[in-house]
Amino acid sequence: MTGYIIRRLIAVPFMLIGISFILFMLIYIRPGSAAFISIGSAMSDPANIERFEERFGLNDPWYEQYGKWLGNALTGDFGVTLRTPHQPVADRLADHIGNTLQIGFITIIMAAIFGISVGVLSAVRRNSILDYIFRGVTIAGISVPNFWVAILVVSLPARWWNWTPLATDWVSFTDDPFRNLSIIIWPAMILALASAAGTARLVRTSMLEVFYSDYVRTARSKGLREGRVIWSHVFRNSLIPVVTLIGLQTGAVLGGVVIAELIFGIPGLGTLTLGAVIAQDYPLVLSSLMLFAFVFVVVTLIVDVLYTVIDPRIRY
Amino acid sequence: MRDNENYWKRLRRRPVSRRSFLVGSGVTAAGAAAILAGCGDDDDDDDDAAAVATEAPAATQAAAATEAAAATEAAAAATEAAAATEAAAAVEDDSHKRGGTLRLWKTTEDAGMDPGIFHVNNTDVIYPTMTQVYTYQPSKNVFSRDGVIGWEQVDATTLVWSIRPGMKFHNGDPVDSDSMAFSFGRLDDLYEAHGATHTTNTGWLYVDNFEPSDELTMTEHWKVPSADAQVYRARHYYSFVNPRIVDEHGESVGTRPLPDGSEKEVFAIQDLPHGSGSGPYTLARRDTTGTRVERWPDYHQHDPADDGFVKDGPYIDAWETRIIPEAASRKAAFLAGDLDVYADVDPLELADFEGQDHLQVLEFPAGGFALCGMDGGKFHDKRSRQALQKAFDYEGFIQALRPFGGTYQGPVSRLLPQYALSQEEIKSYYYHDPQQARQLWEAADFEYPMDHITVFMGAGNPLQLQIGEFIAQSIGESLGIETDIEAVDITTWAARALERAQVKDWELLAYGVGTSGGTTGLPNDSALINFDPRGYGNSAFNHSLYEDLMPRKEIIEDGTALIKMLEAQEQEVDVEARAVLLREIQHWILDRHWCNWSLPPSTVSFYGFSSRLQDFEPNEWLNLYDRRRESMWLKEDA
């Protein structure tokens, strides 16, 4: 196990370098230049555009640009933003990452709690009215895009009751935790909806498969109480695919956070990244996306390790 | 015409407050006094009056009228009387206007706060924290004095400013002629070193230098007369900037070569350190959620206060600007009462705002443009450009995309009637004739095979996509040619539009949706700059002056001729004479089908404001360059 974790940890930097290369090339082949945004004047003298590009190495060959970025990144220097004022990228990321992680964390917790609860209830009360309702809701949750639900949640109360859950008076968690949570909870709920729906359906299916297995029948025949049978034998053994799914959903949640932050006006990594993409601020885009990639790689590693905890038969 | 009638009918139905009545009376009195004073001057000294008329460029009629009001004793007396009347009214019921926070929005963070550097998304801080010489209200042709108490166009190329005494920057440094000369002069330094000033070379060529004459007098020397200089001076980039702050806290943005061969390092204040400005507010917060400016208690008095100013400073305590990137979210925030100023309202969404007492949607004559540009690298033959314009169905466009009516527009906006062409004149160029279009197309000379036309546009606005689709469909049907559209994000769009290449990777460039309102009062701002070979005509449409980009001699010759005509009208300070020149230029452009053709804009536009916002001069809010009205106030029970 320890050897497996060490091997995975060794692989992480190489995976990240591979991801960074692909991301860099995607940014590089995009037409246009950050100079247009940073210099600000579309009719600027081409000599000024060239001067800007030279200053930030934007007219170097791609391998030099990438090599320079990678070399600096490995030493913890992610460069400065191309948009003025040229702030350190690391500072910009640090300013924004807290809000994104907060939304992501609450989303995953809510998705896990609601998804597992609904899935278990749906499986235990299979083919009941409750089961049908839950199945309908979960299908809707999976089918309806997050961003559309978010726009409805923002727009309809405004039209009907002149109220909206938008973060028009944003406060950080440290300044006012309750106010902050009252803002964060809305995008987290919407993002959790799809994730919880997927989790619930998988929990239900997995539990129903286990319900009819031999060892469950054996447990019942030994006279164990139904609750004990469900939690100790059915639920635990149906968790492996669920944990995998929750791990994979982390990626979807991170992607969803970008849109949710945009719609709810929350200053997180999503809004920062989108602004950087529009401004073609490639050091910021690259570093921000690498942060997303890093979080995803780490979560995947944690999920793999969790397998061995849930199912002692699994050995790496 | 029908829509104008509706507009004025609505205007007439508006209740007139006592304050509005008093202000109106004051302005009328001042105007009447100015006219009387002007008549009197003619009677007393015809020779002097003639000399003034000949020598003083007093660039525009508006400027001349305002200057006359400021310059003559009678006007001053009338202004003072109006101000006194206003002051009396203000003393009476001023207190209930004070306080509150103005709530605004923007789509993204600013990219810098230096007023001399061109950036979007920073005027919410620049206007309230900086002092400008005056504000300009194009709808009324009124200049209201801010950082100056007067100005005089001494001769055609000399403009003298009298700075308001007693002004201080936020750190206590005095505002004087040195700081004013420094603030104006650094724009050229920034352009040369960084290429980023608002004032491009075309807007600067007439300037020679800025000279501090004494502590509170600054003189501008120009190389040639300029008709628009005074209007430009009202803009935020001519803010007074503290030289000491730039010196101590500025960030180097490059160097500019000097005539003696040496180089001068140029500095910018992108973080707007404390003490940079001398406006009524100071920057209290600037972060990823937006900005907040708060009242500066030591702000100088405006006594007497011109229209838009208050003797004791602005009524509103603070401006809060939130970053709301998503359009649906902005609309929700406005409907929820979380914003005081919305934006232009899509006519098809008007019903969404009905029955909401806490907000108001106002109707204005539309002043924006919608254009379709042609790549001169491909359409160098006039007949090909003419064919495209004849292939476009103008009336069909109005019926399909202008639910409240459309109008025809030339290179100069119809909101500048003294310069604009009549509908009949424009229609003699812009008409749909598919048969003629095909004949012209077949006769035209193409250096590159032209069997496919791509209409290229930004993807941010749904109406822009509809416009692009209409262009593609209309031209495809008329010319029997394959067409498609390509919509990309706005940055990519700008980059590909402005890319320096002999031929672009698109054929037609659709831009502007023609539904915005207002005018800045300048012909260049309407659409003319898009035809200008010194501007977008060169960079976007390859109607170029440079042989490396445009090998076609006829385009270069025409471009050179157009520049001469444009420069002549920019230097013509007599409004009537300038109108003649501008009309000639427009006919020249339309006759040669130069660069672009105008798609019919909407006749009306709609803008949303909260009901609690008072005395905000909605017409001027549509004008990007005048949004610092200190007499605005917030009616809290609205």
Account of the 3D structure:
The complex is a heterodimer of chains A (316) and B (638). Chain A has 13 helices and no strands. By secondary structure, chain A is mostly helical. In chain A, α5 packs antiparallel against α6, α8 crosses α10 and α8 runs antiparallel to α11. Chain A starts with a helix and ends in a 6-residue tail after the last helix. Chain B has 21 helices and 22 strands. The two termini of chain B are 34 Å apart. At the A-B interface, α2, α3, α7, α11 and α12 of A face α10 and α16 of B.
Architecture blueprint of SSEs:
The complex is a heterodimer of chains A (316) and B (638).
Chain A: H1 2-28, H2 34-39, H3 46-55, H4 62-74, H5 89-124, H6 129-143, H7 146-161, H8 177-211, H9 214-221, H10 226-237, H11 239-264, H12 269-279, H13 282-310
Helix pairs in contact in A: 1-13, 5-6, 5-8, 5-11, 5-13, 6-8, 7-8, 7-11, 8-10, 8-11, 9-10, 11-12, 11-13, 12-13
Chain B: H1 2-13, H2 18-44, H3 46-55, H4 61-71, H5 73-93, E1 101-106, H6 123-129, E2 134-137, E3 142-145, E4 148-155, E5 158-163, H7 177-194, E6 207-214, E7 217-222, H8 229-232, H9 243-249, E8 251-257, E9 263-268, E10 281-287, E11 290-295, E12 318-323, H10 327-335, E13 341-344, E14 359-365, E15 370-374, H11 382-391, H12 394-401, H13 423-427, H14 434-443, E16 452-458, H15 462-479, E17 482-488, H16 490-498, E18 508-511, H17 523-526, H18 536-539, H19 553-571, H20 575-592, E19 596-599, E20 604-610, E21 613-614, H21 618-621, E22 633-634
Parallel strand pairs in B: 1-12, 16-17, 16-18
Antiparallel strand pairs in B: 2-3, 4-5, 5-7, 6-7, 8-9, 10-11, 11-12, 13-20, 14-20, 15-18, 15-19, 21-22
